[in-house]
Every structure is written in C-alpha cells, then in structure tokens.
Amino acid sequence: MDSESSSVELPSTLAESQVVLKPRKARPFFGRHPWVLDSAIDHVAGQPGNGAVVDLLTDNGKFVARGLYNAHSRIRVRLYSWSASDRLDQEFWRARIERAVEHRRRLGYDAADGAARLVYSEADGLSGLIVDRYGPYLVVQATALAMQLRVDEMLPLLAEASGARGIVVRADRALAKLEGLSVEEERTWGELPDGPAFIQEHGLRYGVELGLGQKTGFYLDQRENRLAAARYARGARVLDVFCYTGGFSLAAAKLGGASEVLGIDASEKAVATARAGAELNSINNVRFEAADGFDALDELVRRRERFDMVILDPPKFTRTRRSLEDALRAYHRINRLGASLLPPGGILVTCSCSGNVSREDFLHMLAGVAQQLGREIQILEQRGAAPDHPTSATCLETEYLKCFICRVL
Ligand code: SAH
C-alpha cells in the first residue's frame, strides 16, 4: 500500500517491458479499446512474464497505455490505464473496485438481501474480472490470466468495498483454455452458506447455488427485463421457454398477475430450483418441465396450444462469426414457433445473449418471422442488460444482451 517506500513493489506495478505496435495500428488503443491482439504487435521489448505490467507504445516509441501481458492469449495485452503516471498497484485496483461498487449503490442495487453485478470486466475498467453479489456473498470469475494471478490481491479489496462475508472464486473452463488459465479447484474466502444463498429481486425470493449453476448462479442481466415483461402478463397464459430457475415465470405470475405459467428448460437441476422458487414464494399457478426447448415448441404448436405471452431466452447460439448464420436460423425457428402460439395481440418477449448477433441482425430475423407467418410484429420495447452491466462506449464487445418485447398481430 505504501508503494512509494517499497522498493519491492515498484518493478511489478510499473512496466518493465514494452509492447511495440506495428505502424498505423495505434488508433483503436488511443481510442481506449482495451484488447491488444497479437496481430497488432510488432515486437516486445523485454521479457514480460504472463500477467506482468507492460507499456503499449506506438511504432515510434510514444506511450499509449499501460496493461497486463499474456503470451498465451490472442488478447496479448489487456489495457487498464491511459495515464503514464498510473501504477497498476493495489491502490489502483482499489480505486477501480470502489468506483464500480459505488455505481451499483447509486442504482439502488445495494439492498442487503439483493443481488447485483458489482464488477463487469471492461465496462468497469477491470478487463477479465467479473464479480456478482448475492446478498452477503460474492462470486468472482477471473476471465483473464492476469486477473486470476491477482485474485488473492483482489479478494480483500472486494470484501472491503462491498462488506461481503464470503467469496467463491469460480473459473470458466472454456475461457480458461483461451487464456491458458489453470482450472483450479473452486477457491473460497471467508464464511459461506451450506446450501443456496437466498436473495430478493423485485420482492421475489430466489435460492442461488453460488458459483455452481450457470453464469455465477443467476442471470442478473435480465433483472429489469423480468419486471418489464411482467407488466404485460396480467391475466395471461404464459409460456417461458429456456426458463432456467424461473425468473421470468415467477415475475409474470407474482408481479404481473398471469393466470397460468409454463416454464421449460433442458436442465433438470434448473427446473428443480425453479420449482423450489415457486414454493418459496407461495406461487401455485406455475408449472416447470424439463425438456428440450425446440422440441417443446414444436410439440405445443402441433397440439395447437395457445398462450397470450411467450418468453424466449435461449442460451448463446454462437461464439464465432462463422456460426452466425446457423445462430440466426435457430433464432428464426424458435421465434416463428413461439409467435405461432400467440393469438392476434399476443406478446412475444424475445431475447438473445449472443454478442455476435447485433440488434440489427436480430430485427432482421424478426422481420423474416413476420414475413413467413404473414403477421405484423410490433416492437414495443427494445431493451438490453440491467445497468449494473454497463456497456463501454470504447469496448462494444461488452454489449451482448437484447430483449425485445413485441406484440404479434
Ligand atoms: N430466462 C432465464 C435465463 C435463461 S438462460 C432467467 O431469467 O433466469 C438459458 C437457459 O437455456 C439455461 O437455463 C439452459 O439450461 C437452457 N437451455 C440450453 N439449451 C436448451 C435447450 N436445447 N432446450 C431448453 N433449454 C435449454
């Protein structure tokens, strides 16, 4: 902390090595994009270890930014500061974490038994670090090697900024491969609950398996969309496909006043948690089934079932540009089937969390559905992730979630 007087800390927080860009490659980084791909790099001066602090320089030696190095990753350097006087030391990380936590407090996402994303990677100037709060517990996901190497340094800072009682550190296997991360045993800090952590969202209670389920345990990004969708559910028969632990279903039933809700998810475990959630909130007009979403939609259409509202929140269909066409076909299929279940005036809540699928692509897909069904689709609300998942204006990769509320005539 007293880095001025510490001769040991100095070399590790200021850059010892320089990463020199190819000519004419500096623009995006002066523009504060935080990912320096290996293809932009001319050479590296020095021998930075993985996770080491490096300076990014133009081809004629001008300072651009300071970041952390990873020879294993296609993202060779992640940038954290554009000021040559910043050390990437504990005080620096503390300030970033506090700035992030303060934003969630301002949003009013700080109820003691609430849940929120406290740190969202690039959008909070902390590329490779994701932190979600579930009541008094945090789930930390390091998605970059440099952050995994600093986890021990980050945990006390996170605990201090948030007042957390316990922390689970989770490693993402797919990303671990990209980053050359060792997939370590789940690590913990402080005191953790024996079973799930119980949280509240919009007055509904949910049990969350910390770090065990999908994401960090709960889809926090859909928080405001669950409430927005519920507003259209009064008296409605609702179908929620890809329901996970039933967030949209329970909100539609309890907050929206739906008459009846059917939630479907492929994961038995998610469905069991969803049923427990219905019980926890004394909701008895909601039914959850474990089934494939595509098959279930086919079957419901075949049986000529009718729903007044259909919610579609499928998993990411694509991670690469190459599979974009396949993904759009899959979106088209579920949206066509989902819309077919609606009477004229029915509500379609349709989401995509594939970062590669743009809003424009998604709108285009919906137009295709309207054309094929010969029905009008009115878009009532074009929504994104809750504001605890900000989008960085200089790193648009942080925007991924689309949630459109539509009326199908
Ligand atoms: N709407 C949920 C989040 C959904 S995430 C919420 O608000 O919490 C996507 C879900 O799709 C996951 O729960 C995953 O288990 C499920 N899933 C993935 N493939 C599926 C398939 N083929 N059929 C049905 N569900 C699937």
SSE order and pairing:
Blueprint: H1 9-13, E1 17-21, H2 27-30, E2 35-37, E3 41-45, E4 53-57, E5 63-69, E6 75-81, H3 90-107, E7 115-120, E8 129-134, E9 137-142, H4 145-149, H5 151-162, E10 166-170, H6 173-179, E11 187-190, E12 197-201, E13 204-208, H7 223-230, E14 237-241, H8 247-254, E15 260-265, H9 268-280, E16 286-290, H10 293-302, E17 309-312, H11 324-340, E18 346-352, H12 359-373, E19 377-383, E20 402-408
Parallel strand pairs: 1-4, 9-10, 14-15, 14-17, 15-16, 17-18
Antiparallel strand pairs: 1-3, 2-6, 4-5, 5-6, 7-8, 8-9, 10-11, 12-13, 18-20, 19-20
Helix pairs in contact: 3-5, 7-8, 10-11, 11-12
Bound molecules: S-adenosyl-L-homocysteine (SAH).
S-adenosyl-L-homocysteine (SAH) binds next to helix 8 and helix 10.
Description:
This protein is an alpha/beta fold and 409 residues long. It has three domains: 3-81, Roll (Archaeosine Trna-guanine Transglycosylase, Chain: A, domain 4), CATH 2.30.130.10; 90-197, 2-Layer Sandwich (Transcription Regulator spoIIAA); 219-408, Vaccinia Virus protein VP39 (Rossmann fold). It has helices at residues 9-13, 27-30, 90-107, 145-149, 151-162, 173-179, 223-230, 247-254, 268-280, 293-302, 324-340, 359-373; strands at residues 17-21, 35-37, 41-45, 53-57, 63-69, 75-81, 115-120, 129-134, 137-142, 166-170, 187-190, 197-201, 204-208, 237-241, 260-265, 286-290, 309-312, 346-352, 377-383, 402-408. Strand 12 (197-201) and strand 13 (204-208) form a beta hairpin. The longest helix has 18 residues, at 90-107. It is globular and about 70 Å long. Residues 214, 219, 222, 242-245, 247-248, 265-267, 270, 292-294, 313-315 line the site of S-adenosyl-L-homocysteine.
